[in-house]
Design brief:
The structure is a single chain. The protein is of the alpha+beta class and 296 residues long. It has helices spanning 20-27, 39-81, 91-133, 136-141, 147-151, 155-175, 178-193; strands spanning 5-6, 9-10, 209-212, 218-221, 231-240, 248-253, 258-261, 268-278, 290-295. It has a 4-stranded antiparallel beta sheet, with no helix packed on it. A hairpin with a 7-residue loop joins strand 5 and strand 6 (248-253). Helix 2 runs parallel beside helix 6 and helix 2 (39-81) runs parallel beside helix 7.
Length: 296
């Protein structure tokens, strides 16, 4: 009985004291390797391994975040399609299904090794804590118990895990680019524009009215969305020129139904659009554009 394996590391629980010879035969490490180390040296070795695993965990986390972002937006789009009869089948729906399948496959690539790394971190943390809690006599009596975790903290084995984390992060950065996320978000925005609704999706402002207010000012107003329970504010964007399309954010405001854009240069046309934000940090699709407001 050699214990339970976690992420390539093996638990020290239930390891008979007589297994050290078999372990050394398997690993090429002498059976007395641990016994030649002091408690301080062994803990230092394990802390080094722990630090490397924590570094790998940061890369796994970034890879998971990328992969999960693609899953989230494609899953939201499929949920949105379920509320629009015209989008429940056909080429548009099939394309989103494929994107969701690709996104799920990407996530699956990262999940298992990332979890294995977390398990290894937990195992190392527990072992270090256990060693620290022992008296000197107890440490000497139980030294053989730590053979497996000592062997599995070899730098060459740690390198395999950190290299895997780096490789998967690079792979996700290739498979889930900003352009791919933008394309997937367009699918969702289109569904919402067709009247689609998804639980957890921020409701889109359905109307935006822009009126002149004084000489150099414009007042924007809009109705409160019908499902506004989680709305936390609005992002206001403006562009300049007749028929302009290059918008830039000019304000981030709280819960309100109007905003004044003041101090504008005169004799120019302006257009506006807004998006709602919610308490979870999500952002709605754009409102209709209020176009060609002349400030004169």
């Amino acid at each position: 009985n050699s214990g339970t394996t976690y992420g390539g590391f093996q638990s020290t629980s239930n390891i008979p004291s007589g297994t050290s010879a078999a372990i050394s035969s398997h690993s090429g490490t002498s059976a007395g390797a641990v016994s030649t180390l002091s408690r301080t040296q062994l803990i230092a070795r394990l802390n080094t391994a722990l630090a490397r695993h924590n570094s790998a965990n940061a890369q796994f986390t970034n890879a998971l975040t990328l992969a999960q972002s693609y899953v989230d937006v494609t899953s939201d789009t499929l949920a949105c399609h379920a509320t629009v009869p015209a989008l429940q089948s056909g080429a548009i729906h099939d394309a989103v299904l494929q994107k969701n399948s690709d996104a799920t496959g990407n996530l699956d690539l990262v999940l298992s090794p990332a979890q294995n790394n977390l398990d290894a971190i937990d195992e190392l943390t527990q072992t270090i804590s256990q060693i620290n809690s022992l008296t000197d006599a107890q440490f000497r009596d139980r030294i053989n118990e730590f053979q497996i975790v000592f062997i599995n903290s070899e730098p060459s084995l740690i390198n395999l895990r950190t290299n895997q984390a780096s490789s998967l992060l690079q792979q996700m950065q290739t498979l889930v680019t900003p352009a791919i996320i933008t394309d997937a978000q367009r699918d969702l925005d289109y569904c919402v524009s067709q009247g689609g609704v998804v639980a957890g999706i921020v409701p889109t402002p359905t109307q935006l009215i822009a009126t002149k207010l004084g000489i150099n000012d414009v007042r924007l107003s809009w109705p409160t969305p019908s499902t506004a329970a989680n709305i936390s504010g609005y992002l206001v964007e403006r562009c300049q020129g007749v028929g302009c399309t290059t918008f830039a954010q000019i304000a981030s405001i709280g819960i309100t139904t109007q905003h004044n854009d003041v101090g504008l240069p005169r004799l120019r046309f302006y257009s506006y659009r807004i998006r709602a934000t919610d308490t979870a940090g999500k952002i709605s699709a754009y409102s209709p554009v209020a176009r060609n407001i002349l400030v004169n």
